[in-house]
Amino acid sequence: MSSAQLWRNNSPVQPIDHSVYASQCPECGAIHYPWVLLCKQCGARRYPEDDTELFWRKKGYKSWIKVPLEGPCRLVTWTKLWNLSIGFDQQTLDLAIVEFDNGVKATGQLFVDRPKAGMNLVARPGVIRRYPTHDEWGLHFVSA
Amino acid sequence: MRQVGIVGIGTTSFGNLSAYKLQEILAWSACEAMEDAGVKKGGIDQVIVGNMSAGLFNHQVGVESAMVSILHLEPAMAERVSNGPASGSSAVKLAYTTIASGLADVVLVTGGEQMRKLSGWEATDVVAAMTHPDAEYPYGVTLPALAGMFTRAYMAKYGLTGDQLAHLAVKAHGNAIHNRWAHTQTRADHAALTSSPDAPVINPMVAEPLRFSEVCPVSDGSASLILCALEVADRFKRPPIVIKGIGSATDTHCVHNRANLLELSAVRLAAERALKMAKLGVGDIDIAQLHDAFLILELVLAEEVGFFERGKAIEAVLRGETKPDGRLPINTDGGLKGRGHPVGGTGVSQIYELVKQLRREAEPERQVKKDAKVGMAVNFGGFGNNVVCTVVAKQ
Amino acid sequence: MQPGMEMEMKLRPPAMELPPYPPKFITLADGSKLVIRPITREEIPTILETIVPLIQVERDFYDIVAARFYSEMLGILRYRVKDGFCLVGTIDGEIASICNSRLINPKQGMSYHTMTIDRGLRCGAQMFAAKMEYHIEILGQEEVFIVAESPIGFRRWMIEYELEYRPEIWHELGGPPTYVLTRELYFKAKDRLVTGTRPVPPELLKTADKLILPREYPQLPGWKR
Predict the structure, then answer these.
(1) Buried b (16+ CB within 10 A) or exposed e, B65-95
(2) Contacts of A89 in chain C (CB under 8 A)
(3) Which of B64, B282, C144, C209 has the fewest CB atoms inside 10 Å of its own CB, making it the most exposed?
C-alpha cells in the first residue's frame, strides 16, 4: 500500500489493515480474487473496494463487497522452490495454491512441515517479501 | 485472404551469447533466412520482431528499428511483438495477417531474446514478472514454481514419476546433440539422473518435485523466417512451406483461478482453432514442436492437443513413438529443454525446425523417418495463459 | 648450500603437513565420470596453462578469477603461499574444473577459487563441495572463509550453503564481504551438496594420471588448443 493510499484510507491512529480481500459482486454474488473490473458472472462493472478516485464515483458504479481471504482452507498443490528470484535471500520458499470454503482459490506462502494435498490449512496475513524500504504483506498458509 | 508461405529460414546458435548486442543476435538469423530465401536488398516490405522483454533484459527499446538499420532494410515497415514466451509465434501470426490482408508481400519475422546479460537470478525475476503483479509475483512465484505445483498435481493424478520424466530428458538431449545450433551439447544418462548414488546432488531440486534436468536452460539466440504471399513465392529460390492454420487463445492470468488446475484450456483451444482453419484433424499432424520449458509440458501439451489421452503421453514416449523415427516425432531439435529457450525466439525456432524437417534438411540422426507433410508448433505463453498454435504443411 | 638459498629459506613460509585428499569420482548427468584428486607440484605448470586462455574473458568475472588463480598457483609453485592446495576434476583425463584454497592455521581455511571449463554439467558445484570436504572433513578444520566474485558464485556458495555473513573478517581476496562455512553448516548441507564414491577404481583413476589440457573452452567460442 502506498503512503498516499494509507493517508486516504486510514486515519493515522488506526492500525494498518494487512488483510487480503476477495471481491464479491453486490448484484450476483460471484467472488473474484484478485479483483477485476468486470464481474465474471453478470458482467457488471465495479470499482475496487478502497478506491476513492472521483473518476469511478462520478460514473456511479458500485464497489465490490470486500470478502476477507482468511481462515480455513484446503491445500490444492504446493512446491518447495530452490531457485528464488532476486530479492529473496533465503535458500528455499514454499508456495501453495489453496481453496477456501466459498470456492475462492489463492496462491500464497506455505508454512507447514509435511504438506499433503487436501489437508486443512488456515490462511492469515503475513509478510511475504521484504524490500529495502518496506515490507509487502500477503497470504500465509499455516497448519489448521 | 491470401495464402502465406515460408520461403526462408535462419537461426543462430542458442546458448550464452552475452558477448554480443541484442540486435546483432537478431540480425544474424535474419541474414541467414534472407540468404536461404534469396531475398535481395529492398525485397522486404515488413519486419516483425518477436521479443518478450528487451527492455528488462537488455535495457533496450525499439530493437525492431535497430535491427532494420543493421541490415539496411529501410524503409521497410517494422514492429516488435511481445507475448511472453509465445512472442515468436505471435510475431509469425502478425506477419501472416499482414500478408493475408494484402498490406505486405514479403515479411521478415525474427524472434529472439538475450537473457544472459543478467545473472540467472535476475533473469528468473524478469520472467516471473509475467505472473500476476498482486496475487502471484510478490509471493516469489516464478515460472518454475508454477510448473512445480502443476507437476505435483499431475503426478498425483496420473502417477507420473521423476524416473519417467528422465526418459524425456534423455530424448531431448539425444536430439539436441545432433542439432549444431542447440544450447545443450551433452547427452543425458538416465541412471545418472535417477539411480546413481550421485543423482540427488548432480540433479538437484529446482521446484519440488521438478529437478534440474527437467527444466530448460536460460538461453540467448534468435531464429528468423521469410514469409511471403504464395502468389509471389516464385521470386524466391526455395519452394514454400505453407502456413495452413494459426490459432491462439488465452486463459486466466492467475493459475489458481483455473477451474481445473491440470487443464490448459488455451492450449486445447489454440490447437482446435489452428486445425479448424487448416481444415485438418489432429490425426493429420506428422510432426510436432511442443513448448517443453519444463519436460512435463511436452506430455501435457501433447495430451491437450489430442495426440494422446490424458495421462497416457508418457507411455507413447516410453514406446519411442515421439522419437525422430517414431510415429509422431516431437521436438526433433531437442525442444526447449535441449535446444534452449531464448523466450522471444522460441516460437520462431519451433517453426524453423518444422520447415527444416518438412524440407528434409535436418541432420540425418534427427531427420524424421516418415514422409512428413504437416507439422504443428505449440508455443506456450505465461503458464498457459496465452498460447499460439501454428500448422504448416508442404505445398 | 647454493648461493641465495639461505635467503630463500628465510622467505619461504613454514609449511604444515597436510593429510592428502583421497580421490573420489562422481557420475555426472551425461553418465561421464568426474574424477577429483589433488594435484602434485609438478602439475602446477599444467594448471597454469589451463588457466591462461581465460584471463581475458570478462563475462562472469572469469578474467579476475583466472588472473588470481594463476597468481595463487604461481605462489604455491614458488613457495610464496603458505599451505595452499589445488584439486583437479577430470573427465576422461581432460581437465574439466579446478579449485584451490589454503590453510591459515589448523582451524581456519581461506577458500580461493573454483573455475570450471563449463560443459553444463555442474562440475563447478562438485569441485567447490570437494574443496569444502577437504577443509572440514579431511583436514578437520572448524571454518572456511569464502568470498564470491561473480553472481553465480554468490548463488552457489552463499545461498546454497547458507553461509554465515561475517564482513568484519578480512579475506585475502580483498573487497567482497566474507562469508563463513562452519563445520555445522557444512554437515547441514552435506547430504544435499556433497557426493562422490571412494576409492576410485584403479582403471578410472588411471585416466586422471596424466592431465590433458582442455581442448576447447565454452567461454571462448571457436578457440581450440
Answers:
(1) bbbbebbebeebbbebbbbbbbbbbbbbbbb
(2) 159
(3) C209
Query: In terms of CA atoms, which chain A residue is nearest residue B259?
Result: A105
B89 closest CA partner among B223, B282, B283: B223
Q: Is the ipTM of this complex over 0.85?
A: yes
Which chains touch B (3+ CB pairs under 8 A)?
A, C
What is d(CA B137, CA B124) in angstroms, rounded to the nearest whole number? 11
Q: Determine phi and psi for C44, rounding to 5 degrees.
A: -60, -45
Of B18, B188, B204, nearest to C30 by CB-CB distance is B188
Q: Which of B134, B142, B149 sits opposite A85 (nearest CB)?
A: B142
Give which of B247, B268, B259, B209 is closest to B389, Cα–Cα.
Answer: B247
Q: At B264, list the grid cell.
A: 490448459
Any CB–CB contact under 8 A between A78 and chain B? yes
Q: Which residues pair with C48 in a beta bridge?
A: none
Say which amino acid occupies C212.
Answer: I
Please give the Cα distance from B252 to B266 (Å, whole number). Answer: 9
Q: Provide the pairing of β-strand B205-207 with A135-143.
A: unpaired
Compute the distance between CA of residue B383 and CA of residue B147 in angstroms, rounded to an integer: 8
With contact defined as beta carbons under 8 Å apart, do B273 and B389 qualify? yes
Tell me whether residue C143 is exposed, middle or buried, using C-beta atoms within 10 angstroms of its C-beta: 0 to 12, 13 to 18, 19 or more. buried
Nearest by CB: A83 against B152, B206, B255: B206
Using the beta-carbon criterion (under 8 Å), do B257 and A105 form an inter-chain contact?
yes
Decide the pairing of beta strands C108-116 and C143-146.
parallel
Residue-level pLDDT, tens digit, chain B, 395 residues: 899 999 999 999 999 999 899 999 999 999 999 999 999 878 999 999 999 999 999 999 999 999 999 999 999 999 999 999 999 999 999 999 999 999 999 999 999 999 999 988 899 999 999 999 999 999 999 999 999 999 999 999 999 999 999 999 999 999 999 999 999 999 999 999 999 999 999 999 999 999 999 999 999 999 999 999 999 999 999 999 999 999 999 999 999 999 999 999 999 999 999 999 999 999 999 999 999 999 999 999 999 999 999 999 999 999 999 999 999 999 999 999 999 999 999 999 999 999 999 999 999 999 999 999 999 999 999 999 999 999 999 98
Tell me the shortest Cα–Cα distance from B369 to chain C, in angstroms: 26
DSSP 8-state secondary structure symbol assigned to residue B83: B
Whole-angstrom Cα distance, residue C32 to residue C35?
10
The candidate with the shortest Cα–Cα distance to B192, out of C21, A10, C131, C30, is C30
Q: Establish if B122 touches chain A: CB-CB under 8 angstroms.
A: yes
Give me C128's grid cell. Answer: 567447490
| Chain A residue with minimum CA distance to B126 | A85
Q: What is the pTM of this model?
A: 0.93
- Hey, of B134, B141, B160, B216, which one would you mutate to test binding to chain A, going by the most A CBs within 10 A of its CB? B141
Which positions in chain B touch C30 (Cβ < 8 Å)?
Answer: 173, 186-189, 192
Count other Cβ atoms within 10 Å, centred on residue A90.
9
